[in-house]
Each structure stands twice: as structure tokens, then as C-alpha cells.
## 1
Amino acid sequence: MVMGSTSAYDALLIVSFGGPEKPEDVMPFLENVVRGRGVPRERLLAVEAHYQGFGGVSPINQQCRDLIDALDVDLPVYWGNRNWQPFLEDTVRQMAADGVTRAAAFVTAAYSSYSSCRQYLDDIDRARAAVPGAPEIVKLRHYYDHPGFIAAMADHTRAALDALPASERGAARLVFTAHSIPVSMAQTAGPQGGAYEAQLRKAAALVTEQVDPARSWDLAWQSRSGPPSVPWLEPDICDHLERLHDDGVRAVVTVPIGFVSDHMEVIYDLDVEAAAMAEKLGMAFTRASTAGTHPRFVSMVSELLAEPVPARCAALCCPAPRRRPTPDAS
Ligand SMILES: CC1=C(CCC(=O)O)c2cc3nc(cc4[nH]c(cc5[nH]c(cc1n2)c(C)c5CCC(=O)O)c(CCC(=O)O)c4C)C(CCC(=O)O)=C3C
Ligand SMILES: [Fe+2]
């Protein structure tokens, strides 16, 4: 194994959400995602149909492999997921067997919140607790405002603007999107609360600044889950498209700034659902690619590894929501 003489780490661990890669895996994957989270059965079955409509294959695992292939780091690279194979615990066991002592963790989520930060920290802790001799694992910092992430998203936003009919380009609205989360989770995100939305707005502003500082932009939400009785961040992207249409906006570029690869939430909720809504409304619509394997996003990972070892998030930051049983669970 080759090690940069200055590296504070002896391995890089990619930590991701995970997704099914064959039809039989879809339901067990979904059960892992929603265990104890109170997601209604109807919602789960609807989401199952989204996955089955794509052959039971989520693109996210392959996107992790592609990112790993593109990385240029002088460290052995490992990969483990929260919800599907390769499971984080199995990966940490392999790392221990290989003699890794101190790994950096790059999580495929850029923002603060329970779902996008604390839950991954908990996943890492649980995996380490299950593995005798597990290495120390240091989560790299949030990178939502890193120049590499912003440059990648700006490039992809320009391409999506260019893909609009020329007559619609000038007045097109940029609509940034991210995964909705419960309002209560948004309120407790980050050390002072509100960090998820604040970081998303910061990233959107930085991208717009690079693409076209004079252009109007909005932030809308997608992929709402949970029971209807629990408030989640709004407006939903489809409702927002209707409002923009009422306001006379004729063209929209959606920019899924809240995600780092074109996984199922992006391709179903934007390329299928939101695109159908735009079509119904007669609006021109394109969608920017996520960072994926953009060279500046890939080199960002190396830059994060070279930074001073980050401090761990404060213990009270992004607390877990109250867990609730599924409504139909016995
Ligand atoms: C903030 C956030 C991110 C971004 C940060 C990050 O990337 O981690 C994210 C990413 C993702 N979410 C994903 C899939 C799902 N999320 C669900 C449900 C939920 N997401 C939530 C939040 C987030 N989710 C929450 C609060 C829930 C409710 C249940 C709970 O409290 O945990 C459900 C259950 C069914 C439903 O949608 O109702 C599914 C299937 C996939 C995989 C896509 C693929 O397979 O390609 C990815 C990358
Ligand atoms: Fe999600």
C-alpha cells in the first residue's frame, strides 16, 4: 500500500446511502431505510414501484463505484453503505483485517442535518462497535461550499441552461432542489439549528454567482416522505412549478444541489415527476447533472484529505428525531 508521507490517514472510506441492484432487493432495502421511521405503507409501496419501474436497480451503488474509479488518492479506498450491500459493518471488518488504523470517511452527503450527517456518524459508530479492532474513522468536513463542489455544479448548470431552447434561455429560472426533511429536523440541523436550509441557500447562491449573477433562483424541495400529519419543508418542486407558471415563468432549469449523484431520487422525482408537471404546464424544463465524477468534485476529495484533521461534530448537533413505529406495524 502506498501512503503519502504527509497523510494523516492510512485509508479512505466512502460512506453512502446504498441502493438495490435487483428487483428482489428493493423491498428489503426499503425496510432498512424506513425501520422505526413511521413512513406509511402506501408511501413505501409507491416508492417500491419507482424502483421496479427502473428494473429494481438504483443507480447509486454504480455511481459510488464510478467515483472510486475516478479518485486519484494515494490511499487504499474502501466503501460501505447505510442501507444496502456493501454494508458499512462488513467494510469496517475488512479494514480491521487489513490493518487499517485511522481512516478518513468521505460521506456522499454534503450538508448538515440528522439524515445527512448525524445518521452517518451513528452508522460509523455502530459499525465500529460491532468490529473488534476497528480503525479510528474521521468524517471529513461538510463540503457544500467547497470550490470543487460549486465549480462542478456551476458547469452542469450552464450545460442545462444551454440545453433549453435558445428563445427560453434568457428568462429561465434556476430552481435548486434538495431532499425535503421534517421541519423539526430542519430546525435542529447544525450547531445553531437551521443549518440544512442555510447551507443549501449558500451553495445555490455560490453556483448562481458563477453561472449568471443576475439570474433569479429559488430553492424547492423534493422526495417528501413520512406521514402527511408531520410537516416537512415546502414548497415541493411540483407545486413550485405550478406557482412559477402562474407567475408567468416559461422555462426552468432544476439543479439538484442537495445530492452528489444522479440516483433514484433525482431521476424519478425530477426527470420523471417534475418533468411531467412542466410538460403539463407547457414549460420548458431541463435538469442539471449532479456533481458525480466531475473532475473538480473528484479532486475536491483529495483536497479534503490534505486539510487538517477536522474536529468531530458536537454531540448535540443534528439530534436524532423521536423514532416512531410504522402506523400499521403490530
Ligand atoms: C436529507 C436526505 C438525503 C440527502 C443526504 C443523503 O444523500 O444521505 C437523502 C438521500 C437519499 N434518500 C434515498 C432514498 C430514500 N429516502 C427515504 C426516506 C427519507 N429520506 C430522508 C432524508 C434524506 N434522504 C428522510 C428524512 C426520509 C424519511 C425516513 C427517515 O426518517 O429516514 C426513502 C424511504 C421511502 C420514501 O421515500 O418515503 C428512500 C427510498 C436515497 C437513495 C436513492 C437511490 O436509491 O438511488 C438517497 C441518496
Ligand atoms: Fe431519502
Note: The mean pLDDT is 95.
## 2
Amino acid sequence: MRLSVQGIVKRFGATTALGGVDLDLAEGEFLTILGPSGSGKTTLLKVVAGFEAPDAGRVRLGEEDVTEVSPRQRDVGMVFQNYALFPHLTVAQNVAFPLEMRRRPKPEIAKRVTEALALVELGALSGRLPRQLSGGQQQRVALARAVVFGPRLLLLDEPFGALDRKLREGLQLEVRRLQRRLGLTTLFITHDQEEALVMSDRIAVMNHGRLDQVGAPAEVYARPATRFVADFLGESNLLEGEARGDAVAVPGFGPVPVACPPGPATLLLRPEALRLDAKAAGLDCRATGRVVETIFLGLSAKLRIRVEGGPEVLARVPLRPSTPPPAGEGATVALGFAAEDVHVVPRG
Ligand SMILES: Nc1ncnc2c1ncn2[C@@H]1O[C@H](COP(=O)(O)OP(=O)(O)OP(=O)(O)O)[C@@H](O)[C@H]1O
């Protein structure tokens, strides 16, 4: 179902946790709120779930204004980081709980629990207690419990936070498949930018209680709307320069031919767009630099380079068996980039 959040303000004493948040989710959309610790992500989720009342603004589900509606009546499924399963209930009893609360008939409960457990492939463990399950299995039970009653909306607050990397990646794909299959509108919270890029239809980047940008992952990555977004999402070189209309003068690199209103300017250059094969065609800007550090990452290497007469930059170069190893510390390198790979970060 559609979710619409308008003008949400939430204060805790002198702290403004949410400073006017507007957000719309289309039916079946998976939207991730991405932001650093303390930026207001959980508070927004609590307002949507009904656990916190906003000081201003409205929350709508479909056509219904639910701002004053109790959490129970909102029919929202939720999964949190620390699996809040009932320890004394079996897997099946945990999943049945939301249906018992809604006083559904016994045969319907049995049928739905079986279906929900099959969805997360835990049918065989239905008689176990939570403490007899792994962390990943417990989160899948929590997920089954969140969707078993056919919620209007699914809220996920860092559900993989406590899991190791491999398990997390498996569950990310599983959640996404399940969400697509059920066509569930989903609001997901994470501070992990990679997770946000992998999972989302759209990402909303939160900065001090406000959304700096809402857009598709590729859009937010390539064309960040603010300096904060450019810095927070992915690795970045933020080159400071002086714009003269048709070019921005960047120390060490010279004029970068991009359109930008006169004045101080910030250019975003992703590490993978910085080329160390200086003979490559189509490079508009070139510089010389000294390698400060080389980090081997398997498929690629990351180099920190001090540009002569300019800033320190980060380059990421792909590694293939046929290419020579990347330049080591202390080496002098020629580097460059194409103007079309540069994004002018809007001011303000
Ligand atoms: N119940 C509360 N009482 C007072 N201040 C609160 C309360 N809940 C949240 N805050 C404050 O509101 C701000 C936003 O907190 P919130 O938990 O929403 O951030 P978050 O982005 O979810 O952070 P994290 O990723 O660490 O969970 C913080 O400054 C926090 O200290």
C-alpha cells in the first residue's frame, strides 16, 4: 500500500530528531533510509509505526490518515535488529502470535503459519525455541512473523545489524525476493551504504533529521544533491576549486571544463574515475602525484596519491592477471580524469 509522510517534525526536549520530513513510497516499493548514527532514522520509523507521536505532520497509508491511529490498528509488520522473539514460545507459536492477537480462526492460523514458515524456509524447525536457532534463523522467524498477517506496510530497522557479513548478504537477497513476491511496500533502515545500494528501489539519505536527497541508487551515487550525500555514499574525492563559468580551476589539475556558476565550487570525482594510465585517450585533466599508500583489495587496488601542487586523492584501479602490479608507495605517477566523469556538487 502507498505510504505518504508529510512535514514530520519530532523533538525530544532541545533535540530536533526530525526537522520536517516528506516522503512518499509507491505501492510495492522498497525504500531505504540511509544515514549516520543519530540522524533520525529510527525516530522516523517509530512515527510511521505509531510508537512516537509527531509534533507536526501527517502519516497516510493508502487513502487513510493514520497519524492518530494506534500501532496495532495500523497493520504494519516490523523487524528490528535484536530479534525480539518470545523466548518461551516455539517458532510456530511466535509466528502465530500476530494472528492470535487478531483473533483469527484456528484453521486459518495453522494455514498461514505454515505458509509464512515455508516462505522463509523454516518449516522444518517450527517446533524449536528461539534459543535453539542461529541468529540468521531467528531473523527469518521475525520476518515470517512480520508478514504472516498480510501487513499494509513492512518496516525493517537494521534487521541484519547483528549478523556476520556472509549471512547478511544471503538474507538481503532473501528479504528482497520475499518483499517482491508479496508486493509489500517496505521502509528499510540502515547506516550501511553498500546494503542500501544493493537492496533499494530508492534511497533517502538522512542528515540531521532531514532528507538531503531521495532517488534511485545509481542516481544518488552519481549525482549527489549535497556535499553530505557525496561524502556519505561511497568513497569520494571532493575537489575544491574556483569556478569561472565554463571551467573550474582545481589546484594541481588545472581548469576542469565543466559548467558551474562563478565562485567556490566542489567537484565530485569517484576513485574509480581517476585514471592512472595517463596515456589513455579522452582525459581532460592531468596531474602528477606521489603514491602515499597502496592497498591491495583483490579485484582492485586503492591508492592514496598526493597531487603535486594539489590535494590528496584516492584512486581505485582494477587488477587483472595480465596488468602490471599497481605503483607502490613513494612512486611518482601520472594521473588524470575525463570532465564527463565529474559531478558538480550543488552548493548550499
Ligand atoms: N526517546 C528519546 N529521548 C530523547 N532523545 C531521543 C530519543 N530518541 C531519539 N532521540 C534523539 O534523537 C536523535 C535521532 O535519534 P534516532 O534514534 O532516530 O537516530 P538513528 O539515525 O536511528 O541512529 P542509530 O543509527 O544510531 O540508531 C538523536 O539525537 C537521539 O539522541
Note: Residues 12, 15, 17, 35, 37-43, 191 surround adenosine-5'-triphosphate (CB under 6 Å).
